[in-house]
Specification:
By secondary structure, the protein is of the alpha+beta class. The protein is built from 4 helices and 13 strands. The protein has 2 domains: 48 residues; 232 residues. Helix 1 runs antiparallel to helix 4. The longest helix is centred in the C-terminal third of the chain and has 48 residues. It is elongated and about 125 Å long. The two termini are 52 Å apart. The C terminus is likely disordered.
């Protein structure tokens, strides 16, 4: 009976020990994926900010500039790209809508971002664009990979249409979470004007004819949960200028926008709560269950070997019966 029990325990020990690496290295990459139909809205604000008055072509300080970022997953397009590439992908259609203190549009820039659902690596497909211009992304955007590492990454900048290093700057505590802090600085770079401008008749083509150019610089900061790879907070020290040409008085330089852009507090709280719930699921697949099954397998192995050893132990010889043997006599 002991030998049968020990064999059963040894079988379960092998099963749970083998299941441990399978969960981490096989199940995790296939189960931990960004949902193809995700929808998300984020509100950021710069208080105060400097904004260009296109009527006078002079910069003025305003109490607030609001940036609304919406992100919507295109499920049908993701299926089409998966059929064409053989990879499980997510297709995000995003829009950054900038509004002045009066709520009127300052600029809006749409994007289409196609990436691997697990690794977050860009996947090149038809329709990948920024503000209607085709792009071929390198580097991550919006989200870091699951199990983010303490290293620099290439991060895609939609204004310059190119990737640049974003540097790991250390581990910090943010709203009770241990996060990795990343920072990227984009030096002054000539960039295209948004195709949709706040003044009727002003387009990138008409501005180009005047000889005026748009320049941009930013310092981008992210606080990233290393388990899910999701930023729980983001800020930018953002600057834009129009330089030279007939549009700028005197052919000099005028600030188009400048401000320290921060996530609104209620969106920070909601993001932290969402990430806190999701990180538990990732930890189950990468840490809790694999290590738990490994420990359980080791315990079952030890118990099975103990029972096997007891089953093989020789039993003590039986004691002779008490008293002598009576022999018959004549």
């Amino acid at each position: 009976m002991r030998r049968t029990a020990s064999l059963v325990l040894l079988g379960f020990a092998v099963f749970f020990t083998a299941l441990s690496p399978l969960l981490r290295w096989y199940a995790f990459p296939r189960l931990a994926k960004i949902p193809a139909g995700q929808y998300q809205t984020m509100v950021l604000e710069a208080q105060p900010a400097t904004l260009l008055d296109y009527g006078t072509m002079k910069a003025r300080q305003v109490p607030r500039v609001t940036i609304v970022q919406t992100l919507k997953g295109d499920v049908a397009e993701a299926r089409r790209v998966k059929t064409a590439t053989g990879r499980s992908v997510v297709v995000w259609d995003t829009l950054s809508y900038v509004a002045g203190p009066d709520g009127k549009m300052v600029s809006e820039i749409p994007e289409r971002y196609v990436f691997d659902a697990h690794s977050q690596e860009p996947v090149h497909a038809a329709g990948e664009m920024v503000d209607g211009d085709p792009v071929r992304r390198t580097g991550i955007e919006y989200k870091w990979p699951f199990l983010t590492q303490k290293r620099d990454y290439a991060y895609f900048d939609p204004q310059t249409r190119a990737a640049a290093p974003i540097h790991y700057k250390g581990t910090r505590t943010f709203h009770g979470l241990e996060v990795y802090y990343f920072e990227q600085t984009i030096p002054w770079t000539k960039v295209p004007l948004p195709k949709k401008m706040p003044v009727q008749g002003i387009t990138p083509e008409t501005v180009a004819k005047t000889g005026t150019t748009r320049w941009y610089s930013t310092t981008r900061m992210f606080w990233v949960d290393p388990v899910t790879g999701a930023p729980v907070n983001g800020e930018e020290i953002h600057k834009e200028e129009l330089r030279g040409g007939q549009l700028v008085p005197g052919g000099g330089t005028v600030t188009a926008f400048a401000g320290h852009v921060k996530m609104r507090a209620d969106y920070v709280d909601a993001t932290v709560a969402l990430v806190s719930s999701q990180r538990t699921l990732v930890l189950l697949l990468t840490s809790y269950l694999p290590w738990g099954f490994l420990a359980l397998g080791a315990a079952l192995l030890a118990l099975g070997l103990l029972l096997e050893a007891r089953a093989r132990r020789p039993r003590p010889a039986a004691a002779p019966p008490s008293g002598g043997v009576v022999s018959g006599g004549s």
